[in-house]
Design a protein that fits this description.
The protein is α+β, with helices and mostly antiparallel strands. Helix content is about 45%, strand content about 10%. A five-stranded antiparallel sheet has the order 4-5-6-7-8, with no helix packed on it. Helix 3 packs across helix 4, helix 4 crosses helix 6 and helix 7 runs antiparallel to helix 8. It is extended, with a radius of gyration of 35 Å.
Length: about 525
């Protein structure tokens, strides 16, 4: 209860009315201890939960190197992590990579075919293996694959843009750097409005200004940096990318960080079950000495001892062995693999898959299609593809556009792009930057129904041929060029091309509609 003497003095001085003083004197605070949020209560049930928020960089700084080391270990040894990385490369990048298609237009809106052809041909030449990276081992498609896999495994990727590269005519190449060179322990205030946070120099707006890379000889096989010497590289020469998940996040974390412990425990459990099952299948019985009896070794037949004193006996199907005198035979039933092994692995792997996120489903990760029907397969495929398209857009923005813009600038300066043996005008660089990026797309589970849907969309003017072609992962310009080339080849050979006669009305017949309805009823 409130101090009545103090309340009386406040009333005397006119600071508080008598009624207010009476109400405060009678006020009793609640002893229930309950808060407005159940999860905010402090009790023995919530003692393990965090109670004080902190910037994400604090946790990243303390745990990044351990997370990266464990993520790399699992990527080397865990089948599911290897499958996860493989699915990312296959579905986000694909066999043809994210394709660049120039979209250069004249002021009247018509495409500048000569300029488009020159830029596309130059980009294709630069993207060949041995040209686009300083080691000579990578092609542009391999660069995209390594970029995505490194970011997923290490949490971030570090690439240096090498300008004035003398080993190709474009004067430009890429150099992949190990992100461990970006020292997570380098943190200092430069006292000019800038600060270095985990090796990254940031201005007052937290915009990267430079990167401090640890220097080491190329022949070193470890991360031992004597004296900790750094090389400062301006930010415009570095591609440092990661998927940002938090506000004020300076460094990236491995994409499998939240499920690493679960995957490691599951890997250990599977190994234990495998060893126990193998041991159980190899050893099904043992001899036990009978207490109080003096065993006499029987040297007849196959009941002999080896040099170490172990009994030797051959077992064949359908035979019954004889125990040596003074011993009894105990049959072993190891009960492995455990009866709940399958369900336990499934449950654990589903949780790990949820932690990975990024579009990969349990069925794809585990190659398990048990209990999957058409509807669930379709739903899972659509969810995966939507997530993969998000990653494709991120790769385009973070890597493709950055590299292509730099490549075009240096290619124009070096006069590597020509039309009729004349270099493209550097002053028109902004015009030549116009580009469309075409990531890979996926065939539908039932291609016939998808084609019928496209036909109805075109007929009802709710989609365009260009949209349909892009959904199939092709560029409309390429498709038209191929069709034109096909007709020209037919004409050269005096052959005719018979167009297929369309069905009356729409190719989506009533019978097919009835089949779809019956299929839906069966699935429901």
């Amino acid at each position: 209860m409130a101090d009545k003497l103090l309340l009386g003095r406040l009333v005397e001085k006119g600071i508080m009315t008598n009624d207010d003083a009476v109400r405060m004197a009678d006020y009793k605070p609640s002893r229930s201890g309950k808060r407005s949020f159940n999860s905010a209560q402090v009790s023995r049930l919530t003692s393990g939960m965090a109670t004080m928020p902190k910037p994400i960089d604090v946790d990243v700084r303390n745990g990044l190197r351990k997370l990266r080391a464990r993520s790399r270990h699992e990527a080397q040894n865990n089948d599911y992590v290897k499958r996860f990385l493989s699915l990312l490369k296959t579905n986000v990048i694909g066999s043809k990579g994210i394709v660049k298609q120039s979209n250069i237009k004249d002021p009247d809106g018509k495409k500048d075919k000569l300029a488009n052809d020159a830029v596309n041909l130059g980009w294709k030449d630069w993207g060949k293996k041995g040209v686009c990276d300083v080691t000579g081992r990578l092609s542009w498609i391999m660069v995209q694959q390594l970029y995505l896999e490194t970011c997923a495994r290490d949490g971030e990727v570090l690439i240096r843009k090498v300008r004035n590269w003398t080993k190709n005519k474009f004067r430009f190449a890429l150099q992949f750097l190990d992100v461990e060179l970006l020292d997570v322990d380098l943190n200092t205030d430069l006292r000019n409005g800038h600060k270095i946070q985990m090796g990254v120099e940031l201005d007052e707006w937290r915009r990267p200004v430079a990167y401090y890379l640890l220097t080491t000889k190329q022949t070193d096989y470890d991360y031992s940096f004597t004296g900790r010497k750094y090389q400062r590289i301006p930010a415009d020469e570095i591609i440092h990318e990661y998927l940002p998940e938090w506000v004020w996040q300076t460094r990236g974390i491995p994409w499998v960080a939240s499920c690493l412990m679960r995957l490691n425990m599951l890997d250990g459990y599977e190994e234990s079950e495998l060893v126990a099952s193998r041991a159980g299948s190899a050893t099904f019985a043992n001899y036990e000495r009978i207490e109080g009896e003096s065993p006499a070794p029987d040297l007849s037949g196959s009941l002999e001892k080896d040099a170490e004193g172990e009994f030797l006996q051959d077992f064949e199907p359908g035979t019954i062995g004889i125990s040596p005198e003074g011993y009894k035979l105990n049959l072993l039933d190891p009960q492995h693999p455990n009866a709940v092994y399958k369900d336990f692995v499934k449950t654990s792997l589903r949780g790990a898959t949820s932690g990975m996120g990024l579009g990969v489903s349990y069925n794809s990760l585990s190659n398990d299609l048990e209990g999957v029907n058409f509807n669930s397969l379709r739903k899972g495929a659509l969810d995966e593809q939507d997530a993969y398209m998000l990653l494709q857009e991120w790769v385009v923005e973070s890597l493709c556009e950055n590299v292509a813009s730099e490549w075009l600038n240096l290619s124009l300066l070096s006069q590597a792009l020509t039309v009729n043996n004349k270099p493209l005008d550097f002053k028109r660089e902004e015009k030549y930057q116009a580009t469309n990026w075409q990531p890979r797309r996926w065939q539908w589970v039932d291609p016939l129904k998808m084609m019928n849907a496209h036909e109805k969309g075109l007929l009802n003017k709710i989609s365009s041929p260009q949209e349909v072609i892009r959904e199939r992962g092709r560029d409309p310009e390429d498709v038209l060029d191929e069709i034109q080339s096909w007709h020209e080849m037919l004409k050269e050979r005096n052959l005719t091309h018979n167009e297929p006669a369309p069905d009356a009305g729409s190719s989506f017949t009533e019978d097919e509609e009835d089949d779809d309805i019956s299929d839906a009823n069966k699935n429901s």
